[in-house]
Design a protein that fits this description.
267 residues; 5-stranded mixed β-sheet
């Protein structure tokens, strides 16, 4: 019997700064001005890979993207992320800013909520409300918000992230900061990538479990890639059904990405 292939995993992100830090609250949260309250753009969901990966253009305006980049470069410090590939961890080289911000996370969710609902209908995500639990009667397992652990990534020329899969993460749901009070079984199910810049290279490439070439593929291996496009958002299912994927090396320019996840919960 053939040995099972080892797959590098992108596990739980590093914990954000201590919320009890003596720094002011403004240092711990993203400025609310980074996301306009007046953007009424209607988003259209596109299937990059049916039932697995989706994109929508113009989720963020060009001004919003530039505001996020300017904030990152001028008002916060980048942490260096650099580790070589091992049997269990993919090669990665980039810079990161990370904050735990429930308010901004839920505003991002509100911005993309309709396409999240549309994508969710195509995903085979286990309904935790189907468990034998009397308290779950008349409830469903559904998308409720974005992961408050927001991560800004910066990839410069030559930097990349090797082939890996994204794990699910349980979300601690308590306290006054959460958008709702009656949610249980909260867990991430979908990766969300907002592309803040356009660059050469740096594509997010997904590798299909077989070699059959699919529509939108670039290459004989049947993989499917999405090039960084300012303002676009990409959604892909993660956990047990996650497709192996990578962030290709940036060839020219700088790739800025805002990463979060869609949190599901029983409510």
């Amino acid at each position: 019997m053939a040995k099972k292939k080892s797959v590098a995993r992108n596990g739980p992100p590093a914990p954000p700064a201590n919320p009890n830090s003596t720094k002011g609250n403004c240092d711990r949260l993203f400025p609310e001005t980074l996301l306009s309250k007046h953007n009424k753009q209607v988003l259209h969901l596109e299937d990059l890979i049916p039932n697995a990966v989706f994109v929508a253009r113009n989720a963020l305006s060009s001004k919003e993207c530039e505001d996020w980049i300017n904030y990152a470069e001028n008002n916060s410090g980048w942490d260096v992320v650099a580790h070589p590939a091992t049997k269990w961890i993919a090669h990665r080289e980039c810079s990161r800013i990370q904050k735990n911000d429930w308010t901004m996370a839920h505003r991002l969710f509100t911005r993309i909520q309709q396409i999240v609902i549309d994508a969710s209908k195509q995903l085979d995500i286990f309904d935790k409300s189907s468990r034998i639990n009397s308290s779950y009667e008349n409830k469903s397992y559904q998308p409720v918000t974005c992961n408050p652990n927001l991560r800004l990534y910066k990839y410069t020329k030559g930097q990349w992230f090797g082939r890996h899969i994204d794990d699910t993460n349980k979300i601690e749901w308590k306290g006054s900061d959460t958008p709702y009070t009656d949610v249980s079984e909260a867990q991430t199910e979908i990766t969300v990538l907002f592309y803040l810049s356009t660059c050469r290279g740096g594509a997010t490439r997904f590798h299909l479990p077989n070699s059959t070439k699919r529509k939108g593929s670039k290459g004989d291996d049947g993989s499917v890639a999405f090039a960084p496009t300012q303002g676009a958002v990409l959604l892909h299912v993660h956990g047990d059904k996650c497709l192996e994927h990578e962030a290709e090396a940036v060839v020219d320019g700088i790739k800025y990405v805002l990463r979060t996840d869609i949190v599901y919960g029983v409510c």
